[in-house]
Amino acid sequence: MFAERIDFSHEANLTIDELVKRAEVLLPETDLNILRRCYEFAEKMHVSHKRSSGEAYIIHPLNVAATLIKLKMDLDSIMAGLLHDTVEDCDVSPEDISKMFGQSVAQIVVGCTKISKIKFKTKEESQAENFRKMVVAMAQDLRVIIVKLADRMHNMRTLQYVSKEKQMGKAQETLDIYVPLASRLGINSVKADLEDLCLRYLHPDIYYRLAEKIAMKRRERESYIEETLSLIEEKMLEYSVTGEVTGRPKHFYSIYKKMHQRGVDFEQIQDLLAFRILVSNITECYKVLGIIHSAFTPVPGRFKDYIAIPKVNNYQSLHTTVIGPKAERIEIQIRTFEMHEVAERGVAAHWKYKERNKSDPAENKLKWVEELMEFNQSASSSSEFMDAVKNDLDVGGVFIFTPTGDVKELRYGATPLDFAYAVHTEVGNKTVGAKVNGKMVPLKYRLKSGDTVEILTSKTQTPSKDWLKICKTSRAISKIKQHLMKIERDEHKVLGEDMLEKALKRFDTSIKSIEKKNEFRPILERLHFKTMEELFVNIGSTHLPIKDVLVSIPSVAFTETDELEIKEEEKDLDSYYKKVAKTARKSTSKDNAVIVDGLDDIVVKMGRCCNPIPGDPITGIITRGRGITVHTVGCVRIADMEKARQLQVEWNKNYNFAHPVNIKVTTHDKPGILSKISKSINNAGINIRSAIARSMPDQKGSFIFEIEVKDYSELLKTISSIEQMEEVISVSRA
Ligand code: MN
């Protein structure tokens, strides 16, 4: 009764006959001649290849296939294990594999090949996370990852034959990418094995010292384990519980992690031994826990109930640490045989279940697999099962390489332009073209996971309105809008300065000389403008009539005659408005949020003052030389504007763009409330552009969220979903 862990050691003498024999145990009543055909094909293809160890190459795929049998994977996976390097190394086409061995085997092999081509570069945690997600995203079939893990396991086991530098690189990559994947998929046997192998190459000094120390007291330890085992078995017998009890030293990496976490040396690590008790049902698990806790003193704070609350990877077990014989601390894990199966094989248990279920539906015992299968029966497709697991792994979008090998995560449907803005706003603004995997593509190209994107820029490029249609990420869209607004502001500034200069000329003076006399100050103060620039922009955008400025300047003697003359000049402007209004015809373009009676090439903008959204009653205001700005009918800005400049506009029902709108939320000041509200907004599929939070003295919180909604009803829905939270006092549009 010792070490029930799956043994993944390299088997130098493994043959196809032995492999088929093992497969027969796993897959009875299956014709396994196909495995021999895979083997013969792979051997022929790899005939000129050698492993770094000097062995014939075929020993590698054989060992990978053996690992997949140990994990109890299905026939397709085992076949793919034998064939996994043929496409990458032997010029075999995926079509060949598909013709000879079937579409699904070919897909797994292609997936493995794709992942081997990813150039991993993990200088920081977030990058590693992106790489992991990318592996999942690129493996359309989750079996690809399991075959890949088996491949990596064998490569790590034969790593002594490659250069030191390669050893370090592979080990680090394994620790960053494959160990967390194995862990997340719940394949703990593979995870523990890979961790120890990584430790051996990344920290050989620590690894060999641990190995030495553990070997030193081996006999002593083995007799201690024997003694403790029989003690536990005796106690269980007393209470007539039967089960399987095993004990062994913990794996090196978990000892290393403890030393590292607690900052202590090996000698100070007390609980080196782990015992495992497997019983047949949950009631017995808790019964055994009671037996253990009454026989040995439990260490306070070390009991964990992963049966009641399973880990996210579906691991279930009871863990406790007790003072064992001779006052040694020992860790004890108690679980059912089924839970153990899941703990060792994780998601791989799914395929095992599938295979067994064909002949014996009564073996329906693995609870979480059962749940997944239930889901699966209603959907009755394996791909939806994959999607469920992938969702669980939280793959949000596509993963794109920069030319330097960094990875960016973007949402599905993202284009090279989105990528450019994800790299840097200035890169986005200057984009003129893009190369994907070395080839020029249009800016609206849909990026796929694993694409390497190079952005071509030009100093003279500026963003255009059309880009808003290309971009899918809110970051890119808001950056483009910001830039377009700045351009508009700059134009208004120039225009306003020009208009003011012309008007002052009538009084034989200039902006410069008025500034010298400091005579702009009264009007700046009255309008709360901080700079002259602001004054120009407001004149240029016609928000501020020039007459208002002139009457406020003391040294300008503004008379009624002047007013009449100015009016005359403004008639020219009126005729422009009339021209716009007269040549009116319905624009059917889907590109604008509103349909305007106006010129075809008219520029339509949303008023920043009132942020109209579809559903609001709106009106259009003709702006000097810049087209039309849309305001809500109630907007204060339009109250004193001339009727001549107003224009009928209506919302375009075919238009689907998100509109920014501010909402104000008042809450009781509770910790975490901001994230709670944000989550509720995000869950409704609404994008948040920004959030400002303020704590108020009366124990209330106040937040302004700038969100993007399609229309008025979406806004109302969002508001009412926030209102329903008990911490929320009020919600309104701001
Ligand atoms: Mn391989």
List the helices and strands and how they pair.
Blueprint: H1 16-26, H2 33-45, H3 59-70, H4 75-83, H5 86-89, H6 94-101, H7 103-117, H8 125-138, H9 142-157, H10 164-184, H11 188-202, H12 204-216, H13 218-238, E1 244-249, H14 252-262, E2 273-279, H15 282-295, E3 297-298, E4 304-305, E5 318-323, E6 329-336, H16 337-345, H17 349-359, H18 367-379, H19 382-392, E7 397-401, E8 407-411, H20 416-423, H21 425-429, E9 431-436, E10 439-441, E11 453-457, H22 467-470, H23 474-505, H24 511-516, H25 521-526, H26 532-540, H27 546-551, H28 560-582, E12 585-586, E13 594-598, E14 604-606, E15 618-623, E16 627-632, E17 646-647, E18 649-651, E19 659-668, H29 673-683, E20 687-696, E21 700-709, H30 712-723, E22 728-733
Parallel strand pairs: 2-6, 14-16
Antiparallel strand pairs: 1-2, 3-5, 4-5, 5-6, 7-8, 9-10, 9-11, 12-13, 13-18, 15-16, 15-17, 19-21, 19-22, 20-21
The structure holds manganese (II) ion.
